[in-house]
Structure formats: C-alpha cells, structure tokens
Amino acid sequence: MKNSASDLDHRYDIAIIGGGPAGLSAAIWSARYGHSVAVIDSGDPRSWESRGINGYLGLPGIRPAELRERGRDELRTYGVTLIDAAVLRIEARDEGLHAPHPGDEDGEDGEFLVHIEGGATARARRILLAFGMRDVWPDIPGLEHVYGANAHVCPDCDGYDSRGKRVAVIGHGKRAVAMALALTAWTPQITICTNGRPHNIDELELTEKMQTCGIEVRPESITRVHHSGRMISGLKMEGGASLDVDKVFFTIAQFPADDLGAQLGCERDHGGHIVITEHHATSVRSVFAAGDLTPGAQLAIRASAGGALAAMAMHRSLLPAHRRLS
Predict the structure, then answer these.
(1) Considering its fold, how many domains does the chain have in total?
(2) pTM score of the predicted model
(3) 6 and 124 housed in the same domain
(4) Are residues 128 and 187 in the same domain?
C-alpha cells in the first residue's frame, strides 16, 4: 500500500528510513517474519543517474529505478506501508536507549516517534537507518552528461567496461592512486588528473607503483568534458591542451544523506559512516543500520544482503524471552 504522510499516525514494529536496496531488502524480510513495517523514503536516490547496477546476481545491468520499483511492488504484496516523504527527525522516547551496549538481541522494546514532513508521525519499536550517502562531485562542465555511462565513481562496479580503454582518474593523493591501481585489472592506459590541485603523491611506495604500472599524472585544471551524447571523446585542460580518454573515474567526498544518525547519537567513524556490530546494530539500543551508510564496500548487492541481515537481527530482538534461546 502507498500512503501520503498526512494520512499516517500509526505504530509499527519496524520503521525503515530509506528505500534503496538495503531498506527494501530489510522490509521484505521483516514482513515475511510477520512484523508490521513502514518504509519511509524521500525518493531521491543517490544512484538515480546510473546506467545500470552491475554484478547483481541474476539481474545484469538492471537500472536502479527498475530495481526500486520491483522491490516496492513486492513489498505491496506483503502489506508493507510505503511512505513517500522525508523524515524530519526521530525522537527516542525511552531513556534506556542509550545504554552502553547495543543490544543486538536483547528482546527489549524500544519506542521511537518518527516525525515526517507534512506533520504526520509514526511510532516504531525498531528503527533501521538505510538512507545511504551523498556524493560531492568535482565541478567540471559536461561531467553530468556522461555520468553513469562513461563516468563513474566505483572501479569495482564499472571497471569491467573499461577493458582496454583510455581512462582518466580525476583526483589526488592516495585515494586517486588506489583507484588507478584498481583499474589496472582492466586497462594499462590510465592517467591521474589532479584538476589543478597538488598531487600529494610523494610516498616512495606510491610513486614506484605508478611508474611500474605506467600511470601518468596531469596537474592542470580540467575545464570541460568533451562528449557526444553520453560518449566521452576527451578532457579539455587549462591552457588549451586536450587529453584523449574514453572513460572517467573520479574520487569523491561523501557525507550521510541525512543527519538522523547524529540526531540519535549513533557512533560514527571518521568518514561519517555509522558504526555497526556484526548484527547491524548501532551504538543506540533498538536502532540498526545497513547499506552505504555503514563502513565497507558500497555495492548494491552488499547493501541488499546487509538489509536482510539487519531484518533478521531486528526480528530476533523483537521476540519475547520465551521464544528465544539465551
């Protein structure tokens, strides 16, 4: 079922914030366990412009929008409530939620009040944060026209399509070197473009690896991505020179797509990711997290698996004592 935020003021076993692979997978598993579930999603996914999701078993190249709609259709068959709105804040109503241990499977009841745009609220016993991260792109004209087709941020996801092609890695420092080295699995034709920033590649180990792999460095600013449709023909550099490339990969800064984790007081790492246990519990009792918001590889298939594991853990934590083994 689909509801507008103004129609809702209900109590659920589980409220899931975010409707990507992690959130949808968690909702399916939670509903199959018989729990009442709400998925609250703002409808602004990070991967919307991606041409396709690679490496997702049985669904090669499926577009993110199609995977999302398939998941939502499946959720409707289980009676999951889909709320298309943003969450403004989550209020923990139980002072014991900030106990020192995360309570992966403590069997105790949480109480949260979820404030949704439009003035509605929803109550939940468990919260799953699955709203992912936001990317900070380099400001290069033309990049937005080729993103998802020939400009990418993840070598693991899209490196395969770079086989034998000329690749530019836009970035600097160790992160750019790491990305360039990862791409050598598919092509030897790699140039790091620092886009006018200091290269910060002074460690002897890094420079030796780059020399061995034939990776060059271009320090000029990039003024434009030359393209025809979604095909890249080259990069225009400051001063008028051009660099012939077929593919672009760029390193990015990231930040959580929402500050709900910070509001709740969840422990985070230096990159802003929410720290979780092996059962996807956060440092706040009855709050769980899954997907790109948590540390680790940012792959759709991993996010889906994380959502399923979080659902299992939330289910166990909701069981009364007489139905659990200690």
Answers:
(1) 2
(2) 0.86
(3) yes
(4) no
